[in-house]
Amino acid sequence: TIMIGYFMESYHVGIYNVALPTAHLFLMPLAIFAVLFIPVTSELYSKKKNDEIKSIYNTMTKWLFTISIPALVIMVLFSKQLLSLLFGNEFAIASFALILLSLGYFYNTITGPNVHLLVTFGKTKFLLYVSVIGTIMNVAANVMLIPSYGIVGAALATFSTQLLINTII
Hints:
Elements: H1 2-7, H2 10-23, H3 27-46, H4 50-77, H5 79-87, H6 95-111, H7 113-120, H8 124-168
């Protein structure tokens, strides 16, 4: 959002800022599950019950996928209608940005338990390194893409960063 404001007019920031929080809705199920996942897996890890951790991880990932896939279908197939309904017709131009952001945050959600599992295993330094790499990549991608592609470039930068970070993790 800051970089859109730097490279473009504030109008574009406003347009992008309807797509971004809408796509952030994908993070809610992961946040809800994480509240239970981390304490439970930490206790199991301390007791060396790795098979139970694997079972909980698999179940959580299936639930996150099952909960998130209908939202993804709606956001991809009906992005214009959704933005028009929620924010007004003038915001429908952010529909392709919403699609890209939704795909990125969907991937984040279905791979999200990986982050929480690494926290459980005490691999926070690794997560820091990946976050730094992701931040650098995101800034570089925004600098390259926003001047040419506007808010779609910003969404593509976020999408590709989400793919990279969560694939590495």
